[in-house]
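pasting for the record
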Amino acid sequence: MLDRIRILAQVVESGGFSRAARALNLAPSSVTRTIDNLEQQLGVPLFKRSTRQLVLTEQGEYFLTRSIPLLEEADQLVQSLQPLSGAPRGGLRVSVFESFGAAWLAPRLPLFLARYPEVRLEIELDNRLVDLDAENVDVAVRIGRPLDSGLHARRLLANRTLLVASPAYLAQHGEPAHPDELASHNCLIRGQGRQRQHWYFQREAQKRRVPVQGNLASIGGTPLLCAAKAGCGLLLLSSWMVQQGLDNGSLLPVLPEWQASPYEDRHDEIYAVFRGGRFLKPQTRAFIDFLIEVMKPLQGPR
């Protein structure tokens, strides 16, 4: 049955019996006979025979739609039987939010490709929230746990934020000694909504909700980081984005005795998110393990 469904799926994808036969390296008569046998087995017509175009019947469309997940699960089952010591192979689609992908993941991808040369990696750096099922994405790196109960998640690291500025900015505008002084500073704002108006600070029992404003806002952190290094303002951003600047001196910590966050009560963490299923593709499992390995130097307290 599964082999017949595969041929049906190829016929629909190819848009014709002859083209499907070429794609499958089969005789056209063999493809036609397989579809005829499948229709007899199901007891319903799968194609509208009277049209010049290849059109599925309502029953055919329903059957194919419900069959595709079965084919995918069968493939995953076979792949999951590969020995863990064997080399994963095959396609792998990954979606990563832009700033994290550019700053930390992209420089480490050559190591993954060298380790698993038979994996065909397709990666997208984008700040939009992708639908893993609709876009056939195997792994997505996201801030925060997924709300979809059908998705699984592995924690990569805590998303700790730091307040920083360039030496040039602090030399020109002075270094604030208290969060309340941020009202007189140009603050580079990340994201949308409340975090455009307020930053939150805590030192022991003290808590401060500070209104902030500035001349640059961005959903992604990269433009803000470049502006901060150029002396344009104060920046509250994830430690994994600003750490290199702190190490080389292009950025300096501001109010380091305070814990700073763009959120009042939310402590986001970064997760590797993947579709739930009984059988995880070896290349998916290998990539998630790789992420956990290379993110260890950035790990915050659990």
